[in-house]
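Data card: per-record layout.
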Amino acid sequence: MGFSLIEMMVAMTIGLVIIVALLGMLASSWTSASSNRRTSEIEFDGRYALDTMLNDLRHAGFRGNSWAEPTVPTTVITPITGECLPAGAAAGSFVSNLRQGVWGANDSNPFTANCIPAGSYLRGDVLVIRKVASIPVTALAANTLYFRSTYNAGEIFRGVPATGCASPVSGYAAPFDKVPCITGTPSQGLDDFTLQTFVYGIGSSTDDASLPALYRIALQADGSMTPELVANGIEHLQVQYGRHTTDLNTRYYNASAISGSSVDTSVTEWDDVDTVRVWILARSATAEPGYTNTSTYTMGDVSYTVNDGFRRNLRSAVVHLRN
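The structure for this 323-residue chain is written out next.
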C-alpha cells in the first residue's frame, strides 16, 4: 500500500523539522565548543606568561654564592649586539648592572633606539630583571657572560679566560677583557654562574602581526640580546613595585614614581623594592561571532576598556623578592 501525496509531504515536513533541529543543536554545540576552546586558550596563555615572569622575578638579584656588591665595571665597552640601553648610556652598562635586580618603565618604552624598536612595542609597562642562573656551570663557553661568585665577592667576566689574574685578554673589550681576579675552588665556595638579563614587554606576535604577545629580550650565550616569544595573545602588562613605608607596611608604586635609571650602579630607590605586583591580560586569537566584550579591566592605575568580540582573561600575582 503506497503513500498518498499528502502523507509524503507531511513526512517530508517532519523530516525537515527534525533536520533543522539537529542542525541547530550542531551549530549550538559548535559555538559552545569554540567558546570553550577560546577560554581554554587564553587561560593557558595567561597562566604560562605569568608563571614565566614570576619564576624570573623570584630569582631577581640572585648573585650565586654571595650577597656582596658585585664588581661594577667603569669602562665603556664595545657594544653588545641589541643591548637595551637608554639614551646616552655607555655601552655595556646595562648588562653589567647586576646589582640592580629589578627596574621598570611605566607605560612607555625607554629602549626604542636598540632592543625594542618603536614598531615592536604595543602598550603597557616594561620590566627588567637581572640575575644569574640558579645552577653554576662546569665548563665555560666563548662570548658568554659569567659571574664568578664567592662568599664575599663577585666579578663579571666573559668567555674562557686564561689562567692567572691579568688584563687585557685578547679578543674581549674592557671590562670583560680580564681573567677573573677572584681565586679559589668550588670546595672553597667559588662558582661561575651564567649572567642572565630579561626585559619583558608587549609587542606584536611574529606568528600573526594582528595578535599581541608577551616577549622578553634575553641575554644570549653569544653575548647578544635578542627577543624571545613567551606567549601569544598577551595584550597588556602592568607592574607595580612594593616598598616599605615608615610604619613597616608595603606601599605599591608605578615605575615612574621610583627614582633611578636602568643603568644606575649606585644606590637608588630601586634598592628598596622588595615586592612586585604583576597583571597579565590575555586575549583570544580570534573574535567570537555573536559575542561582544565591553568590559573594563583594572590593572593598578590603568583602566583598560574594550569593545570588540575577543574574550579575555585577567591574571595577577604578587612576588616577594629574595633580596
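Known properties of this structure: The CA atoms of residues 205 and 213 lie 5 Å apart. The first helix runs from residue 5 to 58.

See the next section for split statistics.
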